[in-house]
Amino acid sequence: MKKFSTIAAFLVGGLSVMTSLALAAPGEAATAQAQAIARSSQCAFLADAPDKHEVVSGDTLWGIAGQFIRNPWCWPQVWGMNREEIRNPHWIYPGQIIYFDRANQRLRLANATGSSGMEGGVPTVKLSPRSRVQGLGTNAIPSIPASAIEPFLSQPLIVEPSVLERTPRIVSASESRVNLGQGETAYVRGDLDGGTSFQVFRPGVPLKDPDNGSVIGYEAAFVGTVKLVREPDDTERSDVHTFSVVNTKEEMSIGDRLLPIPPTPILSYVPHPPVDEVNARVVSVYGGVSVAGQNQIIAINRGREHGLDLGTVLSLERYGQVMNDRTDNNRKIKLPDVHYGNVFIFRVFGTISYGLVMQVTDFVKVGDVARSPQ
Description:
The structure is a single chain. By secondary structure, this protein is α+β, with helices and mostly antiparallel strands. It is 14% helix and 34% strand. Strand 21 (338-348) and strand 22 (353-358) form a beta hairpin. This is LysM peptidoglycan-binding domain-containing protein. It comes from Undibacterium oligocarboniphilum.
């Protein structure tokens, strides 16, 4: 069976690769670079990878990548994407075909009907940036199953201590009510910072950093939304704002907090390893349970301040047990950490992030390691 040719520029993987490339012609260098790094890194193509894959509705970048390469987080290397292209990728759509050439270790994207461009008998299509509306172009395939994370994209879920201190709060309700329902009036104190529409949340369980025990955030229970009706008049000698309850997931109460409704989340991210070395720990499993499995949500103790962004993939590892070596006078030793899966970061806060558990062979537990893929 004929093997197809493709496009990909792998990242340079070492001095020996760079030396050999310096001696090659520009066109030969690109191919040599891809082949050398594919052989020497975890971004190698699978031996049983298909010759081609026709993109269909329901596909994800992660799923397609897993058909061709050992580690789906190598997707940017396979396509030669730089950091800007990772943040604003060339999307893939149903009906297009991904071709694979084992000899050259390359991929190419083409329309199912082909195009005028031909190289080695393979139809090609030049990708160009598309305008993004609400994150993705029409029918573009997502990075991971959207249904698994949509409820977690726009609700607060995690509130950091510094943010919690600044959030406005409900101080009273009309007719001295304790709880509030849709259409009722809520009185709020605090700096609205020009906002008019807010989510209402209830601070919940404190999230503690496994490394030092400090509180780095609070799980926030989303209870509904409110809209500003009236700001206090300067002549009233009052700092209380009047709000109307737009909708509720559960009854609002005195003491509940407000956060501005965020803009529609942009889903333009692709799976990629972090730029800088990351060594994090699992802080919690969403829902208050003790363990997580495939497609469940976990929080880790690293965030934007540590260089994480949307689409970052980290390796999940069981923290190696500390034990006594009975063969060496009971000397304390630590066993190696054991890799058992990956986590795909889809929402990033300052010092904490939410991730979707991917490809696990064991349960995720609080305290487990989440680090840069090795």
